[in-house]
Amino acid sequence: MTLTTANDQPRQCGLKWPNAELREALERVDLFTLWLGRSIEACVRGDQSLEQWQSETFEVAARQRFLELGSALDRVCLSVLQSDDTHLAQEWYFKLQDGDADFGKLAPQSLGNSRDSGGHLGPLRIEELQAPLDRMVLRAQPGVIQPPLRIPNGRSIVLRLDSRLPAQWDDATSRELTLRLHRDWLTNTINTLLASDPRPESVCSLPLP
What pTM, to 2 d.p., does this model score? Predict the structure, then answer.
């Protein structure tokens, strides 16, 4: 994506590609991609701080991304049990429904990250959950134990939504989404440059986002 001027010409800056010796030295210590990213950032931001450039460049798009993602940005806390045994997951569900056990008591039998936290998981954004778990959580009511759900890795999950905090457009969310957009743009720019394999010490044109 390029930003055009009033004359409809893409805004660009020139990045000098390193000589062969510098690139080889950086690649030996696995730092070439990091060096390239920092060089691109220095090139595009000019006299501005990186944070100021990021805000001016991506803030409008970040707002649009927030509107597109919607409820997927909500933060949730869950109680979760996982098992490779569908029958065991069903047994957990009935015990929880009948009040014969709680998530903390059953957690040592569970698989996954919640095993060592008494079955608790979060807070995390709904978008961080894999499908179809994300859709279940979007529909769930707090405090209601959900029937076992089979997920793509073959495990069965029993969960309860404990709390849900709707996403809000504030400074923290704006900054988070701005950084995401910046990282995506930077990664794509780096990959495009590497694929083009510029000649050593040549000047590469970088279209601005």
Answer: 0.79
In whole angstroms, give the CA distance from residue 204 to residue 207: 10
Question: What are the Cα distances from residue 69, in Å, to 33, 99, 169, 191, 206?
Answer: 30, 36, 12, 26, 29
In whole angstroms, give the CA distance from residue 119 to residue 161: 12
Q: Which helix (H) or strand (E) holds 15?
A: strand 12-16
The angle subtended at Cα 107 by Cα 102 and Cα 108, nearest 5°, is 130
Q: Say how far apart CA 123 and CA 113 lie, in whole Å.
A: 13
Whole-number Å distance between alpha carbons of 209 and 177: 15
Tokens standing for residue 136: 């279940």
Residue 13 in contact with residue 44, Cβ under 8 Å? Answer: yes
Q: What is the CATH number of domain 76-165?
A: 3.10.50.40
- At 73, the amino acid letter reads L
Distance, C-alpha 190 to centroid of its chain:
19
Instruction: Please tell me the predicted confidence (pLDDT) of residue 11.
Output: 59
Residue extents of the structural domains in the chain:
12-69+170-207, 76-165
What pLDDT is attached to residue 53? 95
pLDDT along the chain (209 residues), means of 10: 35 86 96 96 92 95 96 96 95 94 93 88 93 92 94 93 96 96 96 93 87
